[in-house]
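Below is a filled-in request sheet from our internal design queue. Each sheet records the structural input a requester submitted and the sequence that came back. We keep these sheets so that new team members can see what a complete request looks like end to end.

REQUESTER: design group, bay 2
PRIORITY: normal
MODE: inverse folding
CHAIN LENGTH: 376
BACKBONE (tokenized):
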């Protein structure tokens, strides 16, 4: 059997990592400014994380959601406290796409409606509903097109008002900061008005914090810069530092019903133990604050550089986009193969930086030096 060939691959085999570094099979060290799609939050192979994995795996990796799991309760309490959402409810699943699927489903259950408003550059996942609200027709099969979705320009509140005026909208879904779309940050006034208008229309506001959450922006959730409280918040990526895990934070306005949602593997014992440990490390090592400081340091360093063909720098915390007038493919290739730095891409023109939240000033200086060499 062969693998289903859907991923264009770099000719590198990564076989271990430590902190902000990964190493290939030849022992070459790479600075990781991508974190495997923003998944690595606390750093590769953190000793407390590995210890938690070993201890829990020795006791129990999985049992179904038909029995009590105190680790789920512990995780919900920890997440509520660190995020400021003590009064919300938590539903655990396996991936960001699943989180968005369930958030959309809850919004539809609550409103009795099915239309969704999403935004330009949006990426919310690749499962049926999640890919439908993703602004990329190339990855939508005909099967995915049954849900009515309207894509609107980011920051255009008048367009939102017009779309909501029909009274048929179940949910508005938006990223705290767009990730795959190229690190676009919504305006504060727009986000505040979006919450007001969504609620006025009887719809539910879903904040996709899958990439921008868990401290990456310099606050626990990126939407906390705007002073709003969404009805539903979706999380994944950094929640368990690489172990497949995700969740939906659900407003107390929603009343759970037995059988309404469900999952086989979601909320399993090993995942909960790791997610609890990630939150402890984020708290104990002040990683949210570190993301804010190091993000500002990186941005200032980038602003002081001569970057040929630069169109725009965008970002908050350790979620940074460097957009070029033309293609950045060659620069990214030189960074990887000549300077040994992993970075991400958004389209053909934007380089994305999504490093582990434990990034140090020395790491930043090293990246800035290697980036400069790749540019010139």
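RETURNED SEQUENCE:
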């Amino acid at each position: 059997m062969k693998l289903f060939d859907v991923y264009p691959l770099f000719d590198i085999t990564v076989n271990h990592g430590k902190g902000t570094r990964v190493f290939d099979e030849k022992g070459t060290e790479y600075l990781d400014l991508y974190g495997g799609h923003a998944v690595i939050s606390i750093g590769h192979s953190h000793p407390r994380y590995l210890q938690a994995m070993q201890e829990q795996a020795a006791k129990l990796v999985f049992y179904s959601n038909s029995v009590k799991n105190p680790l789920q309760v512990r995780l919900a309490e920890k997440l509520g406290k660190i995020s400021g959402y003590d009064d919300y409810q938590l539903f655990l699943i396996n991936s960001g796409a699943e989180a968005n699927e369930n958030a959309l489903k809850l919004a539809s259950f609550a409103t009795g409606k099915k239309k969704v408003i999403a935004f330009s550059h949006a990426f919310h996942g690749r499962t049926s509903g999640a890919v439908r609200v993703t602004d990329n027709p190339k990855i939508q099969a005909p099967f995915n097109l049954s849900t009515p979705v309207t894509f609107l320009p980011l920051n255009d509140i008048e367009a939102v008002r017009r779309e909501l005026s029909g009274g048929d909208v179940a949910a508005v879904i938006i990223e705290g900061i767009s990730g795959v779309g190229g690190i676009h940050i919504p305006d504060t006034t727009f986000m505040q008005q979006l919450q007001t208008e969504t609620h006025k229309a009887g719809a539910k506001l879903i904040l996709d914090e899958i990439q921008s959450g868990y401290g990456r922006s310099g606050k626990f959730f990126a939407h906390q810069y705007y002073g709003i409280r969404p009805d539903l918040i979706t999380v994944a990526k950094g929640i368990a530092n690489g172990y497949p895990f995700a969740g939906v934070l659900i407003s107390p306005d929603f009343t759970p019903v037995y059988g309404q949602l469900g999952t086989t593997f979601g909320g399993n014992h090993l995942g909960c133990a790791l997610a609890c440990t990630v939150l402890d490390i984020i708290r104990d090592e002040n990683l949210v604050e570190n993301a804010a400081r190091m993000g500002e340091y990186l941005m200032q360093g980038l602003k002081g550089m001569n970057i040929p063909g630069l169109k725009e720098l965008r970002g908050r915390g350790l979620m940074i986009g460097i957009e070029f007038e033309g293609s950045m493919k060659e620069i990214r290739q030189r960074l990887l193969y000549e300077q040994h730095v992993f970075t991400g891409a958004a389209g053909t023109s934007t380089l994305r930086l999504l490093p582990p939240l434990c990034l140090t000033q020395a790491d930043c200086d090293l990246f800035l030096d290697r980036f400069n060499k790749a540019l010139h």
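SHEET NOTES:
- The longest strand covers residues 169-175.
- The longest helix spans residues 287-303.
FILED BY: M.R.
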